[in-house]
Amino acid sequence: MTPVSLTDVSSYLPGEPIGTDYYAGFATTDELRDSVMFRAPRWRHHVGPDESAIDMIERATAGLIERHGRGAITDADVLITHTQMPDMPFYGAGAGVAHRLGMRARWVLDLHNGGCAVFVLALKLARQLLVSGEGHTALIAIAQNAAGQVFDQPGVRCRAQAAVPGDGAAVGLVTVSDESPILDVECRSYGEYAGEMTIISDPPRKWWQAGTGEACIAFTEAKITKVLARGNRLVPEVAFAVCDRIGVKPNDIDLLVTNQPNRVFLRNWREALELPPQRHRDTFDDCGNLFGAAIPINLERAIADGQAAPGDVVMMAGFAHAGDFAGAAAVRWGGRR
């Protein structure tokens, strides 16, 4: 197969860090407040009130332009985007991102089903398009912007779930090269779980209908128990599948980079792969749950501070929503040029 590499990543966190004390003044009685799913991080970032997903992605791209030149972006053949909360409900940010960055890509695609593991799904799609001759460069752009919009609504910020998410954006540059080759990708969909993540409001209504009560994610103890069980199983399963195909033992992975819903998942995943904490990137206390942006933001930070060294096998893995998607991708990191 033609070698395709994840050549570089760059990220952006909006605004100043917001401490947990911000939520203390809003806290009310919540039957889920003691759930392991909602143990709050120390810090998180919130998208600005007038900051769009396209703004966030443009700011995340600055690092790639600085290191590789604007031409690496404007000349990219493929653009793949994902926005947690599209600024317009009828379409994603792909066309707007392409315009803002001056791109004339042959392929502009918006992904929504990958959720917290969407970066892995985008890597698989980008690699397949480039291998099939559809170009030489792809840009993957992910924006997580739900924390400062959905979870900071007055009627939602008092809930235990509100303090966990954080906002951020990241972009990945994928090229036909052997600089940092993508070794293998595993993506699995589980349609039987697709309807288990739902939105509620008080009084009840469909998410698009006008009303007085803000919408939020519907969590119950029963749902949380199921999601914890699935997440603990699905992420190691896809990581094991990739390890098996590339001939690397799980405990020989140099760096594990996952999505970061909570501390329990992070601990259980590295223990399942028999990895010490120093080989699993963990920014939960600094950034909270970054949803789909977590994997590329964590990878960028690991590269920047030397946790990912040239020659390292980096395993990226995660699952989405209530467990309807899971994916893992391994890269042999070649270092920044």
Please supply descriptive tags for the structure shown above:
337 residues; Peroxisomal Thiolase, Chain A, domain 1; 5-stranded mixed β-sheet; acyltransferase; 3-oxoacyl-[acyl-carrier-protein] synthase activity; 3-oxoacyl-ACP synthase
Could you characterize what this model shows?
One of its GO terms (biological process) is secondary metabolite biosynthetic process. InterPro entries: ACP_syn_III_C, ACP_syn_III_N, Thiolase-like. Keywords: Acyltransferase, Transferase. Residues 113-191 form the Beta-ketoacyl-[acyl-carrier-protein] synthase III N-terminal domain. This protein has 337 residues and is of the alpha/beta class. The chain folds into two domains: 4-178, Peroxisomal Thiolase, Chain A, domain 1, CATH 3.40.47.10; 183-189 and 220-333, Peroxisomal Thiolase, Chain A, domain 1. It is 28% helix and 21% strand. It is built from nine helices and 13 strands. It has helices at residues 21-24, 53-68, 71-74, 94-100, 118-131, 221-246, 263-272, 284-287, 294-304, and strands spanning 4-12, 18-19, 43-44, 78-83, 107-110, 137-144, 168-176, 182-189, 199-200, 216-217, 255-258, 313-320, 325-332. The protein has a five-stranded mixed β-sheet, sandwiched between helices. The mean pLDDT is 95.
